[in-house]
Amino acid sequence: MSVTAHSTLFSPAIESFWQHTFLGGDVLQHSAELSVATQADLDAARRVMLLRRAAGQLQAVCTPALAERLALRQQPVRNEAMLRERLQQADLPLHGADYLFHFSEADKTALMQEITPSSVRQLQAADAELFAAFQGAASEQDLDDAYVELDHWAVFGAFEQERLICAASMYPWDGQQIADMGVLTLPPYRGQGHASRVVRAISRHALTLGYQPQYRCQHDNIASAALARSAGLSLFGSWEVISPDAAD
């Protein structure tokens, strides 16, 4: 599937977060096509990460120990293929990539001027029975993939005849002013715009509280990527982290 990035300007908070993540440590090489850096404080689950910006540049970061193991100081990599070959030779496979979507500054302005539809509202603890019925009507796979929970930082839902048919939840991500979201629509109600309206409503709520909405989905999740675009988000890039099966 081809996902086309809009020519957009993202929030300085978003740019700053990813800039610090990938270029905030010891920069080993940097060009318009490829940057490689080390960060001493990466946790084990993210000891190697790649970010392919929608504009084209590939950014890589790893721990200093892995930089030595990959000989990145002694033998700089010329391109992405060389970097991935080094990772493969070192038995450091990457997990399947996630698309990262954010609202552009221009699209946020339009979003904040909207009025939330009457069929969409924020969910509270008092909605536990409705939410339990919603979960009971969804498959285990859908529940695992979406990770929508009533006790998350913010939860919104769409209703049809008082039945909860779509829900999205958010939680602060990586200790930043970024709110990562999940969304799930019950199968009989998909393709009717419910998820798009819920995503926009919960995103508006996050922005009101000073958080930047973030939407992630794996590359092979065509429907989820399409939802992000229909909700007005723009592609920021593709993010990969080291696989849990990678060698220590």
TrEMBL record:
**Molecular function GO terms recorded:** acyltransferase activity, transferring groups other than amino-acyl groups
- Keyword Transferase belongs to the record: yes
Q: Name one Pfam family in it.
A: Acetyltransf_1
The organism's superkingdom is given as Bacteria
Listed name of the protein: Acetyltransferase (GNAT) domain-containing protein
Q: Which residues form the N-acetyltransferase domain?
A: 110-248
Gene3D superfamilies in UniProt: 3.40.630.30
Q: Does the keyword Transferase apply?
A: yes
